[in-house]
Fold each of these.
Amino acid sequence: MSDYEYGNRCIPHPYALVGTQADSASDASYGRVVVPGEVDVTHGAILYLESVTVSFDGFKALNDLNLSVDDGELRCIIGPNGAGKTTMMDVITGKTRPDAGTVYFGQTIDLTRLNEVAIAHAGIGRKFQKPTVFENLSVFENLELALKMDKRAWKSLFAKLNGEQRDRIDEVLATIKLSEAAHGPAGRLSHGQKQWLEIGMLLAQSPRVLLLDEPVAGMTDQETAETAELFLSLKGKHTLIVVEHDMDFINTIAHTVTVLHEGHVLAEGDMATVQNDPKVIEVYLGR
Ligand SMILES: Nc1ncnc2c1ncn2[C@@H]1O[C@H](COP(=O)(O)OP(=O)(O)OP(=O)(O)O)[C@@H](O)[C@H]1O
Ligand SMILES: [Mg+2]
């Protein structure tokens, strides 16, 4: 096992109800067995941040941040510029180490002990704002590369795609509505389509959690509407955490919205609740 794999470094979450060791992992009524390397979501939460603080030269970009996201949820994160939204994603993906606090993936995987590569392999995919597709390769080839970068497929990096892998790529192409563009160069796609292709490249690796930072920035209204549909179709199959300033977009997809301000959760709830929260109104209008 390579040094970044977490399996042998699994430690129980402080809240983990390991209880009596059951004879079989499926025998939930007698407790459960923590399977090394598997994401344990028996209590519902797939991501759990507690009292996370990140300081840059004394300035707290995250300040006692608490956040819990359920498995399969589509969580929207909003907040003014500098609220700490991107920093929060940096902490989840291991790009930035918190000065204090805990970050758990399921109940047993402590993300603060893993590096970025291990976190990606554990099942947390992140989409950056600027699309980074390979322009000279076809859409299909971009997805093929992404699929082969998945640790589970490494052995086949230089092998031809097998039928199952082809089916997976076709499935992703249909999900991101690029089936017809599959064999043309990615460089010819529109900005919005490139964003979808990049999301598809993440999906090819079957992530449990997808982090999307300002995914509709620069998209046309039509592309934005189609992205909303895409995200709603992914909800449940994956957990999505979406940071966006586009409130119409958030309104279309939102179930639970978390408002960040000065590195801390200011409000959380459905869209109507947070929109009518006096603290939220003050932060947005008082800018
Ligand atoms: N590497 C860094 N060094 C110093 N300060 C940083 C660093 N990264 C972020 N910050 C500061 O931390 C604060 C939070 O930044 P962050 O990028 O997380 O905000 P954000 O909510 O994503 O904002 P935006 O909506 O503009 O993208 C900002 O004041 C930013 O200047
Ligand atoms: Mg940001």
Amino acid sequence: MTMTEAATAPSASPAPLLRTESVSKAFGGVQALSGASIEVGRGTIAGLIGPNGSGKTTLFNIITGYARADSGQVYLDGRRITNLPPERVFSLGIGRTFQLTRIFPTMTVFENMLIAGQHKERSWNPLARAGGAASRRHAMELLDFVGIARHAGALAQTLSYGQRKLLELAYVLVADPEIVLLDEPAGGVNPSLINTIAGKIRELNAAGKTFLIVEHNMDFVMGLCDRVMVLDYGSVIAAGPPAQVRADPRVLDAYLGTGEDDDAQDGDRGAGHEGA
Ligand SMILES: Nc1ncnc2c1ncn2[C@@H]1O[C@H](COP(=O)(O)OP(=O)(O)OP(=O)(O)O)[C@@H](O)[C@H]1O
Ligand SMILES: [Mg+2]
């Protein structure tokens, strides 16, 4: 993959659906992103991996308008969308989930789905009229698709962590975005539900949905993604098919660290922390 394909004839290779070009972002003295360039082909499942703190969530936040880039650009289908507000990015067809789920715990699973349907209407009252017959039916279909329809009437807080992730997936699908960004969809989820989540992503992708997935679970990423990009200290250090990336010494270095005390490095950078 070259980063200069935009300069060549459009017919040479299809333009990526989503692309970031040299995005940088600092938080005070912390350089979270340093010239991060990624691309996601239409109809593919792309992975974005990297140690804790390497900038994955920050890049998601910049793509989706939740954080502003200091420099660099974001393109959706060739159109510049850099620093547009979140609701604008959402309406252009980029859906996302959050590293820590953002469902409403004291509302029912079904009410959470109705809120998702109201995004476009800028109303957050679930009892407002978003519950038209069609949207209610669509909400139930999606809950059924992810396998939690039987919990529709239960308070969202009664769902297991993995079921909440499934609710988030159903939630983001309500608006039928062209591309879905998932921030750690398998994090903290039990193995059997992880397989369910992977299966749903595959099914959606087979039907044409494009995905960009951040995830620390390597089996999940490598088994699901067509292409994997690796961030380290805010820059992409490797990108390619899973097998190639997995064998790349730079990637092994990034994960294990180059210090003498590998265990400490691994423990420090490999453990999950509360981001987002
Ligand atoms: N709002 C913020 N204010 C200050 N620093 C931030 C903020 N958001 C992120 N950072 C810092 O930017 C760096 C990148 O963080 P980010 O959350 O993007 O990493 P990540 O790759 O998603 O990590 P993880 O795998 O642990 O979720 C980290 O050093 C983090 O502490
Ligand atoms: Mg993160």
